[in-house]
Design brief:
By secondary structure, the protein is mainly α. It is built from 13 helices and no strands.
Length: 291
């Protein structure tokens, strides 16, 4: 059990490290995500092929999963765009708005009952982001892009719930990332025309960052999470992933000393968001204990 918890927290830390790599890699956000997907998809197809984990899926289901993959790819593009236009800490704070959008959209898409507690906790997060936005307009563009990223980021887990009812998680991940790569490849010429890049081919620093991002922060993090799920409940895994933005912000403080360029409004807004995450975690814990 102890090993499983260590694997889980290692996966969350690796996920939080993606923001650091997003700043290290000098490619623009669209190319960064395209190369990340390319390396990850090739790795997963080879790995799952030799592990016998590739399953056939009907053409109709493939198209649906590909659509979710495009949403995931656009979420990544806007997330790294937020880092480029603001910084890692601001992008990760905006990432926390996923809870608010999920509380609104999940009941609408899955035809479930609204949870007013989740909506109120989500509004706390939005209030924290507003405090940062209102008092520190320097990061205005990055915050707007980050909120769009959170909106997109809440959608593909909702879609995944449907897919996971009939398909294994490995199958959904493989086809989803493949769909993201293929659809983003079609959009990339238009994207580069709208947002020209300084360079298209990654330099040595970019290549090292992309390999770490794909192999460690994506493939290894996925494997660690799957291993942890064998010993730990899905509830505990999801609860622990609430720490991802906090881990990422702490890493940004350590690596880039971003705490020196952020004013008091960031810390007030962040405190409101941390309180919301704590209350949400406490609420879910009590529900699970009652069941």
């Amino acid at each position: 059990m102890r090993k499983a918890f260590l694997q889980l927290h290692a996966a969350v830390i690796l996920a939080g490290f993606t923001g650091i790599l997003g700043k290290i890699i000098t490619l623009n956000e669209g190319l960064l995500v395209w190369y990340r997907l390319l390396i990850t998809v090739i790795t997963l197809w080879v790995w799952f092929y030799f592990a016998g984990k590739i399953k056939r899926v009907s053409p109709g289901e493939v198209l649906k999963i590909f659509g979710a993959g495009l949403v995931a790819a656009l979420h990544w593009v806007t997330f790294y765009g937020s880092i480029k236009y603001a910084n890692v800490s601001v992008a990760l704070v905006c990432f926390s708005a996923i809870g608010f959008f999920t509380a609104i959209l999940e009941p609408l898409i899955l035809r479930k009952k609204f949870s007013w507690q989740e909506i109120l906790l989500g509004l706390m997060v939005m209030a924290g982001i507003y405090i940062i936005f209102h008092f520190d307009p320097e990061y205005k563009v990055g915050i707007i892009i980050g909120i769009i990223s959170a909106l997109l980021g809440c959608l593909f887990p909702i879609f995944n719930r449907k897919f996971l009812e009939t398909h294994a998680s490995e199958t959904v991940t493989l086809y989803e990332l493949t769909g993201g790569l293929l659809t983003l490849s079609l959009l990339m010429p238009f994207y580069l025309r709208a947002f020209p890049a300084d360079h298209v081919v990654p330099n040595t620093q970019d290549l090292v960052g992309l390999l770490v991002l794909a192999w460690f922060c994506t493939v290894l993090a996925f494997q660690l999470s799957m291993n942890a799920l064998k010993k730990i409940s899905a509830f505990t895994v999801n609860l622990t992933y609430n720490l991802e933005p906090l881990y990422g912000i702490l890493l940004a403080f350590l690596v880039y000393q971003e705490n020196q360029s952020l004013d008091w409004s960031f810390y007030v807004g962040l405190s409101v968001i941390v309180l919301s995450v704590f209350l949400q975690s406490l609420r879910i814990y009590r529900q699970a204990k009652a069941r």
